[in-house]
Amino acid sequence: MRLDLIRDDGVVLIVRATKKLRDRIGPPDLCGGEQSTTVLGEWYATRFGWRPDVLLLVNESTLLPVLLPLAPAATALSRAVDRIAVAMATHGTSAAIIAAELEQMRTHRIGTTANRGVVGIMSEFSHLADAYRDRGRQPNLDELAARLATTPCSPLYRTHISPDRAFTALVHTIPE
């Protein structure tokens, strides 16, 4: 992707993708010093090698997981924004906050992973998702993500214990 063709008005969502995912969606296009302008901050992403492939996004600050089909990979991050909005609504976020966050997410950049703790949580979510899913049928990705969101995560032990609680606490700090 040519950086000179990307609309740059300073509004950007940063997705830090694993190499396994970048091999499917394209190389990093994050410029040096660029930071996420979203209230939720950066998201980390990887893919589950299921049939069909599934994209896992994890919010860096709350560890909230979001799942969606990876295919078609070229539109995965654009579709991910809609799935993030659904997850926000599922966890009780007001329509005004969701709309403001969606406005901030209209442009996205791909970067390499930088937080090993979040990468470790993604690995744990991957193992749990494998254990939770029924191999005889296609999983309901929203239900699976909601179940993963209730998982106690060690980075959250001193605060909210699980991603769903951490996300709810963060949303309650956002002025409408």
Overview of the structural elements:
- Residues 14-165 form the DUF6933 domain.
- It comes from Dactylosporangium fulvum.
- This is DUF6933 domain-containing protein.
- The chain has 176 residues and is of the alpha/beta class.
- It has one domain (3-171).
- The chain has helices at 19-25, 76-90, 95-104, 116-132, 141-148, 163-171, and strands at residues 13-17, 43-48, 54-59, 65-69, 108-112.
- Strands 4-3-2-1-5 form a 5-stranded mixed sheet, with helices on both faces.
- Helix 1 links the parallel strand 1 and strand 2.
- Helix 2 (76-90) runs antiparallel to helix 3.
- The longest helix is centred in the C-terminal third of the chain and has 17 residues, at 116-132.
What's the quick description here?
This protein has helices at about 20-25, 75-90, 95-105, 115-130, 140-150, 165-170, and strands at about 15, 45-50, 55-60, 65-70, 110. The chain is an alpha/beta fold and about 180 residues long. The longest helix is centred in the last third of the chain and has 17 residues, at about 115-130.
